[in-house]
Amino acid sequence: MRHLFELFQMMDIIDLIDILLTSVIFYYAFKFIRERRAGKLAFGVLILAGLEVVSTAFHLPVIGFLMQTFFQVGLLAMIILFQPELRSALEKIGGVQVGDIRGIISPGDAAKQKEQLSQTIENVCTAVCDMSLSKTGALIVFERTQKLDEYIRSGTVINADATPRLIKSVFFNKAPLHDGAVIIRAERLHAASCLLPLAADNEIDRDLGTRHRAAIGMSAVSDAVVVVVSEETGTISLCKKGEIKRNYNYRDLYNELLAEMTPARPNVVVTTPVKRKHRTRKKNGSDESAEN
């Protein structure tokens, strides 16, 4: 205890800053690993490290030899095993957004951009609800701070206003671009028929098909928000941070998309859009108006 007390007395402000930064790095590293399947791999590495300690303490030559051999190439093995997670972490670090520069430079432009964003989200929600009724499969990606150029290159650039009719036309099952995803960039429908990475997590519900796995995979490797419509059931789902939430209606989808796509500000209250009327079908085949 006296030795520890002397060490604390020798510490200065630089040492405290160093300890604080190291603690923050370890905290976010632990949080990042825990939220992904890399947590199981990390737990396996900890078990092997425990075996190394046990073999040293109890002088177990065979186990000690195996563990020493493993940890001699451990760094390379860690890079290979954690390659997807390391890439995702570096992409998130590089995609950190520091403030809304456009809003600081020109408040008028920021207000106009917010209005355009609201209109785009409203158009997407309208198209999504219509496709849900007709059970038309759809996959719509909202790009945020991380650029998705590598996925855009796999599709066809359109760069048009994201109107409901255009979105529904793209996903019409006989349209040449209906396979793949639509990417929304800067409040415009930037590209269609884009190929997305599939989620490889075995714990995903087996009832979810390729379209949903692509939505989960896209949201896991980037900060994008992905909307998906099931072709089998018409269910509307939203994916972010590698997780999926299902059974959205127009109002809930609009509110969540607006909250996700609007830069975070304190005490921001997201207003609910005007209730939209659309047509729903009765079991006897007739149509009726309903509020969503």
**Category by helix and strand content:** alpha+beta
| Number of discrete helical segments | 12
Quick one: CATH class of the largest domain? Answer: Alpha Beta
Q: Calculate the terminal CA-CA distance, rounded to whole Å.
A: 67 Å
Written description of the protein model:
With about 290 residues, this protein is α+β, with helices and mostly antiparallel strands. The chain folds into two domains: about 1-95, no CATH class; about 110-280, DNA integrity scanning protein, DisA, N-terminal domain (YojJ-like (1), CATH 3.40.1700. The chain has twelve helices and nine strands. Helix 8 (about 105-135) runs antiparallel to helix 12 (about 250-260).
Spell out the blueprint of helices and strands.
Layout: H1 2-10, H2 13-34, H3 38-57, H4 61-72, H5 74-81, H6 83-94, H7 101-105, H8 107-134, E1 138-142, H9 149-152, E2 156-161, H10 164-170, E3 181-185, E4 188-194, H11 210-221, E5 225-229, E6 236-240, E7 243-245, H12 250-261, E8 277-281, E9 287-291
Parallel strand pairs: 1-3
Antiparallel strand pairs: 1-5, 2-4, 3-4, 5-6, 6-7, 8-9
Helix pairs in contact: 3-4, 8-10, 8-12
